[in-house]
Amino acid sequence: MSRASFRVLGYAGAFAALSLSGCNGPVNNQQGHMPAQPVAFSHAVHAGQYGLDCQYCHVGAESSRHAGVPSTSVCLNCHSQVKTDSPEIQKVIAAVAAKASIEWVRVHRLPDHAYFNHASHVTAGVACQTCHGKVEEMVRVEQVEPMTMGWCLDCHRKTLAREETAPVPSTPRKGELLALTSGSPLPEPSKTPRILRPPSDCSSCHR
Questions:
Q1: What are the Cytochrome c7-like domain coordinates in residue numbering (predicted)?
Q2: Which residues are annotated as a binding site for heme c?
């Protein structure tokens, strides 16, 4: 091998080492990632001790690709009256007064080339804990699952093999609330269980 080839290999090795040195875990895997947040929000207190529903704050989870991060005004639905003297709540109050957003640090992040839709999973009856772990026990949120392609595919294939069904909707579907206000008859909710058919082909997640 020529001296030039050795030099190219050396540069490639050095680049790979520098790239990997910036990772706090395996490549493409942020398992164990548990960053500090600008406000010390405890899911253990809110979702665990007080039993708040996840979708009270993450309102997009059932109807959107993204679960969403609650606005600061949502926090003040309770904290305009509760623990207003807390230094952490004071940060939220100050942000609302300044009409500013709190810069939460993202914990779970899939690669840009991977498509994921929260709504399709939530409406299929997949519990938040399936992907996010026991969030209701976390003082600081941590990524507990690898969230790799193989991990997702394994869940899809097991669900398909078990022929699981989606829960029958127990709340009005889209358009039904409008029917209620207009005086039109409310459609009967579907009683037929929907067999889950999670895909495992490439184009479902790589669009």
A1: 39-86, 115-206
A2: 43, 46, 54, 57-58, 75, 108, 128, 131-132
Q: In angstroms, rounded to a whole number, what is the distance separating the alpha carbons of residues 60 and 178?
A: 20
pTM, to two decimals: 0.76
User: What pLDDT digit, counting tens, does each position of 160-172 carry?
Assistant: 999 999 987 765 5
Q: Are 103 and 29 in contact (CB under 8 A)?
A: no
The 3-state secondary structure of 145-183 reads CCCCHHHHHHHHHHHHHHCCEECCCCCCCCCHHHHHHHC
pLDDT digit string, tens, across residues 53-67: 999 999 999 999 999
Q: Which residues are annotated as part of the binding site? A: 43, 46, 54, 57-58, 75, 108, 128, 131-132
Find all residues with CB under 8 Å of 142, minimum gap 6, and list them.
32, 33, 34, 107, 133
